[in-house]
Structures
1.
Amino acid sequence: MRRVGLAASAVIACVAVAMYQYFNGSRWSQEERSLIASMSLSALPTLPPDPSNRVADMPQAVALGEDLFFDLRMSVDGKTGCVTCHSPDQAFQDGLSHDVGKGIGLRRTMPIRGSAYSPWLLWDGRADSQWAQALGPIENPLEHGSDRIAAVRLVAEHYAEPYADLFGLVPDIADLPARGSPLLSGVQEANWAALAQQTQTEINLTFANIGKAIAAYERTLLPERSRFDDYADALAVGAPADDILTDGELDGLALFIGEGQCVTCHRGPRLTDDAFHNTGVSGIANQPLDQGRTLAISLAKDSPFNCLGEFSDAAKEDCLELRFIRDSHDMLRAFRTPTLRAVAQRPPYMHAGQIKSLERAIMHYLIAPTAPAGYSELQRTGLQPNDIPALAEFLRSLDPIQGRIFP
Amino acid sequence: MAQTPHKRRWLRWFLIGMPVLLAVVFIGLRMMFAVPDGLDLADQKATDAGLYQVSLTPNAGETTVGPIQQWTIFVMTPEGTPIDGATVGIDGGMPQHGHGMPTTPQVTDDLGNGGYLVEGMKFSMGGWWTMKVTVDGPQGLDAVTFNIVL
């Protein structure tokens, strides 16, 4: 009988220790602790170089790029710039379900912070660098509505000196038409076709350099620290962490790395795997179904502004993502996993803002609906509707703490 | 020390029940990320029809989620003699997620001594991956599938 009594005492002691650890911030297993540490901004590696952009880390390029980013003259009517959709006051996005420039675009604006870490840009990854991405909207009739000749003229007229310091002389614009691009139609296409090939190459080179300057500025926009990072760092070193996150936020974190399996794709310090997934997000009524990554693969491979193109500064060995790009039918309606940093500040959600609130976005993963085309990778997890508030609370703990920018 | 049989029964159930309950909870949680039991994780295997021995190894020694990596495939006869000049292909995916690799890995160099350089290997998430290696060599076409758990 004494043996039974001793065993009972031992079990009770174990339970007591477990409860003490649980309530003392040690509710995590070793595996969970390392997962939490891996999600902290402190685990963010040094910004990888962009070999395709030789001015990427030059302060003069950052300054020129910042001026260009905020310059509304970079549009057909002087009313639209990069800043129009990527507002610094709104986590460098616009809070709209579709980007709105000269017209209404097909997808939602993505946030910029931390995008220098992504091998692919945009929802479908049709650009393989920040500078290649920056060039697209300038010539998109629904966004800036401008074109490469107009952009080169703007730089020649207003930024000749800082441009020349970085890249050498700007092309002579005296004989250039006002507008022109090989991607557009009508007079712009005709103007472009009338140019000598060498002039076209000069324009393209200058246009690429405009993108590289803008990218140099965008590289400086890094993810911002959140209360979650403070918690993860305190937990990692055994410092008092109990007051940093609320019980609800901690419950949400446990679901995020546990039952919800959110961390499978939203992993690492930026909370993204930089990969493309079909998660069964619905289409938009009365619009053709967005093919996602499927159509972007050839766009990325054929772009003259990609890593392997003549305007890139990279060697072939630097272009692994492009050289080994996945060209496959299983990418139908796959979209890039967005970062969850500052996610609560960025409704509406999904690639075309289909879901209006954070709670509804979480509900999408509970339901795991059938994809409107292709196959959804989502499988139902053990998540229940009652788990949604805690998960949403945790996601709100990823909001930036004002004035504390990494590092 | 007289205890009633009732009390003793309670204690016995408690002592047996607690570990069982904890084990059930633990196993249940583990199953959320379930990689099937008994996966053959060997990195050297005979091909399906037994025509070749094939090994598949990361050049960095270890596999990680995220960066693009180089791997090396060695192709040998069943007796272990290296085979050069074979046409070797590789592709993979995640059976539980229904998707392929985020890249298209390719054999880019015949290294000699039965070695073939694979470039463009990338794993976008942890879990169970399968990698299928096809070999078209002197004995004909054969294939083998490796399991990788990250």
Note: Residues 1-32 of chain B form one domain.
2.
Amino acid sequence: MNTKFISRSEEFLLLAVWRLKDSAYGVPIREQIKEATGKTWAYGALFVMLRRLEKKGYLKSHFTDPSPQRGGKSKRIFRLSAQGIKALKDVRKAQESVWAGIEELSVSQE
Amino acid sequence: MRNKGIHPPWIAGWLIRRMFPDRGGCSILGDMIETYHYLVEEKGPFWAWIWFWAQCIKAVPPFLIDACYWRILMFKNYLLVTVRNLRKNSSYSLLNIIGLAVGMAAFILIIMYVQFELSYDKYHEKADRIYRVIREGRAFTPAALGPELKEKIPEVEAAARLIRSSKTLVSYEQNHYLEEEFYWADPGMFDIFSIPFVSGDPRTALTEPSAVVLSQKSAKKYFGDADPMGKILTVSERFEFKVTGVFENMPAHSHFVMDVAVPYETYFRATGNDITGWRSNFSYTYVLLEESAAQQEAENKIHPFIVVPLLKAAGVKEPYPKYFFLQPMTDIHLHSHLEQEISVNNDVKYIVLFSSIAFLILFIACINYMNLATARSLRRAKEVGMRKVVGAQKGQLIAQFLGESVVTAFVAMILSLIIGLAALPAFNNLVQRQLSLNPFQNCQLFLGLVLTTLFVGLFAGSYPAVRMSGFKPIAVLGRAFARSPKGASLRNILVLAQFAITIFLIVCTIAVRNQLRFIKTADMGYEREQIITLPVRVGSVRQNIQSIKEELMQSPDITAVSTSGRLPNDIDTFTSRDWTGRNPEEPIPIYYNTADYDYIDLFSMEIVQGRNFSRDFPSDEKGAFLVNETAVRIAGWDNPIGRKFTHWNGQNGEIVGIMKDFHLHSLHRAIEPLYIFLNPRDFSSIAIKIKTTDIPATIDYVKGIMKKFSPSTPFAYSFFDEVFERAYFTEKRMARVFGAFAILGIFIACLGLLGLTAFASEQRTKEIGIRKVLGASEMKIFFLLSKEFVRWVLLANLIAWPIAYLAMNKWLQNFAYRTYIGAATFLISGGAALLIATLTVSYQSIKSARTNPADSLRYE
């Protein structure tokens, strides 16, 4: 069976959510991405990606109680679904097998 | 943390909420506000504000892409699948598209025609306030009526009278024309109708007694590019008129199209008629009512204000019948069927009929599409199943298939425009109009095309879409998915409907043609072959008629010459006479004609009692009458020969003979009473009976003589049988339209049948193979494949026949003299439809019946 791999940015997002555990909502996710890749995402783009991942079934989400700090809005906390975890594992496995045995490449290039 | 007075810009917030309505924008807006507050402390409120707006703007592209993402993805797929399907089944698609295109082309043309007919006279600015005054069944009104209306009826804002003199000789230097559209008109005419002037003043143009106004077209005809103003035109070789105005050509959708107009009052000066008279009727009277006036109220006032005082003054005893009625001008073209109409009107019945045919044809074409699409639906069952399995919803599938049919309809529309353009000249000829098909100039038409395409796409696609989207994935993807009997029966009903409509059209065509043949061969009571007729409008011919007749008779190819007021096919002159021997207070309406001594012989009419006018009886010169049998019967005379009788103008004379009844009108009407008054000097046409040896030479000979006596009159002649047939123009047009559309209907229905048989035999390839292996003959297979369709076509006959019978019977009621619809008509129509259907089906059936079973059984 051929697995459809998730895209790079999807991978970053899923990993960020994974790392943040219970506090994975917009602000820290964006921070995480910035830390990891150096790129600042617009909230609009971030939100669209998260929503699409959720529609595809890789993420689940729930809302917390509203907080005054956020202008009376609640947070939307994301969690990985089983499918999301599997997708990450698939990507990792594929990555490892693709990269297997070519550690020297990076050395010789330097 | 919360900084009072510093809030993110609310407009941006509102925008974000609109774009991402996630529990009132909770997550994203909350996240942004959180970061915003952080930034306010870090970098200050200004930068935070900028940042917030930037975030909002940056959110737009992802939002848009996301909103369209899935749709674009699916749309690309749908389009791909549509195109693939069209290409994969190219012959089937072609059948489908051609069927739709032909149907749509016919529909567009007819609807254009209907739109044109409905637009008659609506372009006048005051169209809804203009009325024509009419009498019971007649359009002519007395000359005195117009001014009386204006004076005595408060609702009447303006009134104008009109006399039409067709074939009037108008000359300017060497240019002589017989003007068809020559009118004597009141100056008030231009207050009522919207006829814009190019030069001259519409208010004063016709006030001078010798003024004439021209349409641009006729001004160009007489004067070329020279300025027409002030030029002198000669009318009927006698009267001179000075051009005082030129108006824009009147649009073709007018119930009268005026080319030359001269003052109304001048007519009475020239002819010596009494303009204040109530007795002679030859004017059309139009009135413009006040804006708030009601037609009925104004009409009701005419009787007590004008008619009653007149009748009282004349000493007529009560009861007085209601004399005058108002008729909305915009109703004239389609709803008015009076005698003495200003020009030939159409009938709203035909408009309804044509529109229904247009819709029927479109309906047949749509049925075709439905039929072929559902028949093919099994091929796509697996696709539907797959789509459903991967999560397509029923609505999406319906949208997909509707989209496909709209695309097909669009392709068909383009093709139909090409077909329509190609067929337009023939169609224009058929309906005798000059329509143009240019959707880029006519925005109504353009809109109509778009709507028709959408309608056809959605209507024709509806049933296949609903049906296909209803497939159950398990059933479709499983192995045992077979032909569904339900779909088959509906397809058959559609075939039934198509053929019922087609057979209906064929029956109508044949019935109308039968009636036309009946008219053509009917014994009208007068001869109409080998007679040419010339209109006479000038004095030079009238004064010299004796010499003209003598010279004409010198030709061996001319056997008789006669002059008369009216030709026998349509005697529209009408009066009421107080007949001696009857109660003088009950005048009897009677038609009249004037003629010379040779009239009866030339037209081969019969005298049943008494004698013809004769030069042997000098007393005839002083006044002699012939009456027809109907007149005698109605008058109740026992022996009319020798009775005194009076012509409408007061000339007295004796009835010398009784004519056998002949049809003095078209066959629509029963024979009515008629008298003919001998008057060899006053006439408006010459009839010449010729031999068939060399017709062009004879006509040249006649032309030479006419030119000799009246050099300026352009020579014009007609064959009397053609004049005769003109009265049945609407019937002829109807026969041709029915014929054309019956053929179209058959064509489209056969396209559908072709597709259906192809499909049916494809489905039964294996069955046919096995049957053949087991010994079935080709003939048997042929019957097997054909019998289903034949059955439905036969049944279609049973539906179509009674409806067609009722419809045609009703139509025939229009004729006082008519043929009947025999069984042969029905049998021929049904037989023709059956034959054509069988031929269509047999193409495919024979092909399948002949296939080698080895090939067909190997398939799969």
Note: Chain A has one domain: 8-109.
3.
Amino acid sequence: MKIVLLSFPLLFLILLGINLLFVSSRPTPMVNQLIISSIGDASYLNPVLAQDSASSDINGLVFNGLIKYNRDLQGFVGDLAESWEIRPGPEPEITFFLRRGVLWHDGKPFSAEDVKFTYDKIMDEKTQTVRRSDYEWVKKVEVVDPYTFRVTYKQPFSPGLGTWGIGILPKHRLEKEDINTTSFNRNPIGTGPFRFVEWVSDEKIVLEANPRYFEGRPHLDRIIYRIIPETSLSEMELLTRGVDYYGVLPHQYRRMNEIPFLKIYSQPSLSYTYIGYNLKNPLFQDKRVRQALTHAIHREEIVQYVLYGFGQVISGPFPSHLWYYNPNVKPLPYDPIKAKKLLTEAGWKDTDGDGVLDREGKPFRFKLITNSGNDIRRDVGVLVQRQLRELGINITFETYEWSVFLKNFINAKHFDACILGWSLSPDPDDYMIWHSSQIEKGFNFISYVNPEADRLWEEGRKEYDLERRRKIYWRIHELIAEDQPYTFLFSPIGISALQKKFVLVERDPSGREIYRPIQMEKAGLMYDLIKWYVPRGIVMEK
Amino acid sequence: MTRFLFKRLLQLFMTLIGISILSWIIITQAPGSPIALTMDPKVSPKIIEQMEKNYDLDKPIYQQYFLWLKKLLTGKLYSFKDGRPVLEKIGERIWNTLLLNLVATLIIFSLAIPLGVFSARRPYSFLDNLGTFGAYLGLSIPGFWLAYLVILATVKLFGYPVLGLRSFVIEGLSPPEIVLDRIWHLMLPASIMAIHGIAGLSRYTRSSMLEVIRQDYIRTAKSKGLPEEIVYYKHALRNALLPIITLFGFLIPGLIGGSIIMESVFAWPGIGRLAYQAVLARDYPVVMTILTISAVLTLIGNFIADLLYGVADPRIRYQ
Amino acid sequence: MKGNGTTSQIRLVWKYFKRNRLAVGGLTILIAIFFVAGTAPLLAPYDPGKTEVSLKLKPPSLKHFLGTDQLGRDVFSRMLYGSRISLSVGFVAVGISIFIGILVGAIAGYYGRWVDSLLMRLVDVMFCFPTFFLILTVVALLGPSIFNIMVVIGLTSWMGTARFVRAEFLSLRERDFVQAAKALGVNDRRIIFRHILPNALAPVFVSATLDVATAILVEAGLSFLGFGVQPPAPSWGNILTEGRTYIFDAWWLTVFPGLAILLTVLSFNLVGEGLRDSLDPRLRGRR
């Protein structure tokens, strides 16, 4: 009996020992595949229903839209549509001429019926999709012939073109199904360069090359999305080569950069972080006060220390690397003296000598809030709190869990100031954020009103010409920068790490395959994913 | 015995109803909506309202409760997050959680019982005191903290993946190596999950042994001249182990609660992580169902424990 | 059962408690932690919220005993203040749970019959929930704040206390002194709180000590999942969770708060077990 008792712990130790021997002796093989680390699991592999970024990334490889953004995010190129025509007028028409001979992953041919089917599904009230808002201005759609699809709008709506980049669903597969709960959402069929193989919940999603892809078979054999719920854990997996590609956090950059088998890329992102002031609050109704706050917040310091330099201080509501950002508007400089002067002009002085500014006997005091779970916003808040306190503003900073934050504070307009960020699409139409009609129920929760800006937002979404749109948005940029309803903090620069084994395959003029290093595009590192390849014979150092 | 069983089953049923109502009350206190979780400036509020309506979220609370019950029983309950049947989602993950917990339990029992028995052999000796202190340490250590340090250390030492069910680059591995890989991925989280249990159970075993060796029949056996080793490891041990068996039934309650953190740390695709994600996403059908299912498992566990107790201890008779 | 009897009993307990070196060690550490928490503003070399970004993520040194965090705040000062949060979560939560537990247990045990069955069914139902998941769900849904966390932990952990208070009451209410009081027409409330409860308090005290340890661990676990006391408040769980992101850059952000939690929880456990041993007459003679 004693021996039996003893044998259990011994067995445990032996098992552990064998395991340790095994893991310490394993080499890393070279495989022609890409393993991407994703922080969350996907939800719907269906471009109409998906809302999260993990699902969207995968849907982008499995499905095609009619068109897609070009590599500079400044216009479109055909995807399932070979070309298109816009007929302007009070009720503009877009006609898409579709590519012929495209096959779904199950071998059935693709046609304009599929496009119409997708549109109808989006517009069906029973479909649980938020994308319906994109097509509000569509009057009707028609299938002219199997390879021609026409959309008519109720009024000019230029952002409408971009919405046809949504992934097209196969009619033959979904016709008789409830789109919200169909098994298709976990077992999709698309027209894209990669086809779906397997999805193990919370673990991985596997895609493989589509040999019949209309632009040719991708060079990679496989793409695997691994779900790793935390960034420092992803970093560990990157080191053990369990992951090939991973979005690096700023503080990890230096360490990653020193690892010989990794290449680091960076690229400004389509988003920005800001402090929004509730303009219903009398404290913030004076423009000078808002300008003073911006002058008092040392944004360069925030970028340098919180983002490790991976951010760009911005002057207005657009990401700084795109065509509609007005480079002539300069960010207000960090200038506490100017800030103090502006506040004094607005009537805020420290009359009782307690170190806090006051006006008519009331101290300058407010609460800054943000959502929890975002480390960068949390750190920004702490720094802003310190910087404004130096100016004599009594500011408290609190974080709340996301749903509580939205429901009890933002949507209820029950806040003084908040730190938040916008993730934008490449189209500049941010009508829903800034137009005064969006105060009641839209995203203009700071209650910003500027009649000239309102008019320009309306004009901008009716204008199809890029140059004329640029002028409109540049003017909007000026107006909003002058009003400072937000303190625009920064637009972060995204960093990603990729194992060095990947190359781009291209053909030289004689038709021979040559390898080029992978390059960052404005539209993202993976814009040319179908040309990625892991060449054999290149021995990677460990 | 039949009457006892019947009575217990009736009690079980009543408790079950209580559980489901209570969990429903908790859920409906939530301020958040499962729809508007992302702030997408391209989405109009009208559409969000429509979508909430499709989920019956505009109905009165008691109606929602009966709808949930009806959908659960007819298998038509779908997750808000990905539109899949809730039971299917739970079903595909529950085996991973059970496997992890089973291994952890095996580790607990195979380490804790010997530890407790040997400690009780010479109570208050240096080794016993060391064991006592170790046990308190085990009870007090924050599991996720330890897990982090252990993951960090293993990655630095071996450079071999530790997260998830298995390694990803498994080309070139032979089948026995694949098995070893799985075991490796299982061992770390299971061992760390077991620490708490080892500490507790070894203490329990120790005091149970001490209790038994003070009993008259052990003294009698000793005074009859039986070798002490035999008395201790045979007679005493057997009697001390009986109540421990019943603890199996009580292990189930910790199953889901205890797994939430460890499954998150080790990227283990189990029920605990599902539960946590469902809470984050306000996926009410999933949260509700997991709460109810785990409560049911607990009820069953208690029931089994009672029965085992009756088997283990003939002095207890049910009426 | 009051007056002289109680003092001599306390003295007796202390006599046995003293012999348990581990428990005394735990008690010493606990007293130290309480002292630190009480005098944090005096002891802390820096303001816990003061940022000095140019000094961020500096390892422990003579200037910053436990290093600095990602915003250059002094970890030592933050930990000192953090002890207040962690301890108050532990104590208030347990206070609530003890209060409910005693109330429910006393009523069930004293009145018996249908009151007892009803309350014990409720205890059964509550026991069936996976506690941590329940706490997580409720805190997440109500919104995590220090107040909500205390209340929710309290509301979900009273069942054990209720059970053994009830058991004590069941046996005590048959005892002579209770019967005598009843015969004399003393009202129920007085009997429950003045006559029976003092005799049932010892085990409550032991389990309360152990529960504080658990509550501190639960708060740390909640913080880990993002539902603990919300930053920038410096609870130990928060410092640990914030530091986790920088585990490769700054080990001290992860290691020290973890050690602090471990040490505090360990002390509570040691003291609790020591109390249990010295309160239990059967275990007394053996050391």
Note: Chain C touches chain A at residues 49-51, 53-54, 56, 70-71, 140, 142-144, 226-227, 230-232, 242, 244-249 (CB under 8 Å).
4.
Amino acid sequence: MTDDTQETTAPSRRALIGWGGAGLALGAVAAGGTVAMTRTGESTDDAAPAGAETGAAVPFHGAHQAGIATPVQDRLHFAAFDVTTDDRAEFVQMLKDWTEAARRMTAGHAVGEGAYGGLAEAPPDDTGEALGLKPSRLTLTIGFGPSLFDRFDLADRRPKALVDLPQFAGDNLDKNRSGGDLCVQACADDPQVAVHAIRNLARIGFGKVVIRWSQLGFGKTSSTTPDAQTPRNLMGFKDGTRNIAGTETDRLKKFVWVDSADGPEWMNGGSYLVARRIRMHIETWDRTSLQEQEDIFGRDKGEGAPVGKAKERDKPFLKAMMPDAHVRLAHPDSNHGSTILRRGYSFTDGTDGLGRLEAGLFFLAYQRDVREGFVRIQRNLATDALNEYIQHVGSALFAVPPGVRGADDWWGSTLFSKEA
Amino acid sequence: MRAARLSVVTATAAVAALTAVTGCTEKGSSEGGDRVINVTATDSKCEISKKEFPAGHVEIAIENKGSKVTEVYVLFPDDRIVTERENIGPGTKQKVTAEVKTGDYRIVCKPGMRGKGIRQAVKATGGKAVKRDPRLDKAVAAYRTYAQEQADETLPKTEAFAKAVKDGDLEAAKKAYAPSRIGWERTEPVAESFGDIDPKVDVRADGLEDGQKWTGWHRLEKALWQDKKIGGTEKTLAGQLITDLTDWQKRVGTADITPTSMANGAKELLDEVATGKVTGEEERYSHTDLVDFKANVEGAEKSYELLKPVAKENDATLVTQLDKQFAALNTLLDKYRADPSSYDFVSYDKVAEADRKKLSDAVNALAEPLSKLAAAVAK
């Protein structure tokens, strides 16, 4: 829900680069190219704009995991798991099995021996509902929660940045929708592809891990491709106008990717993910006058321009906004320059027992250090006028390891294969 | 009980009935020649005219020269019944025909219609014999015995339950209810393979078809726990339950059991737990779900233990996993009873949501590898 537009950047240069990148991306996919980004974060074929080729495959291997700086897809299935096995070797084997399945599914293939044609007496390896569907830009991104480090003698490997999130003003967290030893974020342009991925990983995980909670998201609320139209959240406002783009090497390096200087070594090239289930009081919001809605956000509803400005991407003049306007409080200038890469989705889980839409924002944000990213910004949002219309009901934090480098590598190899 | 779903056992039974073996009684003329086997049964002997015959249509011509009523069976090596003839009185003759595939069989006479009978090995020749692993035949035979024992033990327990109902003794009936179901729950896939019995004895209110009369255990469960009264209808239904279960007891031996149906039956028992017991739907009035839960797991474990020697050869990792997950689930279940030798489990309405999830997680952890057992014995 944060908005950190910090300067006017006419949709000129970056957009051109973006489109150029798209051409490269398609070429790379056609040629079977796999390397998405170099170690320094120079993105190449991850810059395909949304809608360019929504059926294509996103390379699974790379210095960073896909699903962070790569273009944001339309749909989400996010799952948090708890570990049930005490056997480290068994858990590591599951991570390897997951990696192999993820490698296949992101390329648009079925898991294992497929969904049919095997032994008639045994259930097929793959559940089958994604047969015939395109890869749909499926990305699968794994993260390790703080509680994982209480297991398998990992305590001394827990990153300092993987803090226990403090209680924030207004939090009403449901523990059944919070936390988790690990998570998998599945994003795709086809919801069936995303759900298929989580379902098959959960199946492979039975006996080793259990699903703690999961969330479906149906509409992206932020993009990493600024040349595409800025998405709107369920409150009807454009969100993430100045989000960190997949092409912004410098800002990715500064705000998203963990650097070797940050430590620990196993997180080098990784990131930290904050997931927050933010319920919106949709009905009361809808009864709020347009003026108040715009005052609360600090932008106009139609164009998305900051208060007093004409265009969405005009540089906001924060002092023109109400002191408790959302954009003002979330802006990097109000947070010692901090910014985060947002990748959230709208959700609607039907209606609640009172007939109200059970809806809101499933907020996902990636950052190099949570303490300087989400924690700082969220604390500053304590007086946010928007708080009257939202409530944080779920929360989780994960250390997202670097990417899988090649066919022999696996999720979590840097954490589990070398001892500190 | 599961709402109308074609179980593997049922499916195989249907196929077998169509293609493999058709047993029927013929009173008409006999064909004679090498397709007729004469069986002469006495009180101590079971003499047969030939030990080998060509596969295909055969006729068993039985003469009871003994003093006791007898019965004659043709059995597969795993004791599954190919065909049978009961109630053959002293001095009478009967004929049975069957369509028999190439392979080994037993002809069994049971003077007095009890015991294991007097056995003769026979062979149907010609064509290609289906290769059988004698260890798997043994496993199936042992499981068949187990299924029969469960039925045999269920009847007296259900009779005690029915008696309490007929006596109008609400408390005694409530007490006898859950124990009466254990044998059935342990062998449910076999019991359900007789498609007509399950809907009579184990159907729940939500499983009723339009116009179907509600009978059986759960109808009585509702009367005892929800309505809290026993009327004439309930007393009649208690008698009907015994009749239907006696039918089951008689037919258990004819169930088509194979190594794969045993393995898949074990998995189906866990499915039963996952869809009916963990949710508290099965015993929604009595909340005795954990008794059924335990019985389902015991039945699954029985199949698994019998198949384990073969499964271990083909997939040692799977066996290690299954041993571990069976143990984990049993340990978890034991937390819900004070005495591990009793079936006195905590009432399921007292099991909190978070604890139900733990049970559900443990069931999933076991059922997923269990679904691979059939492949490990079919290799």
Note: Residues 88-106 of chain A form the longest helix (19 residues).
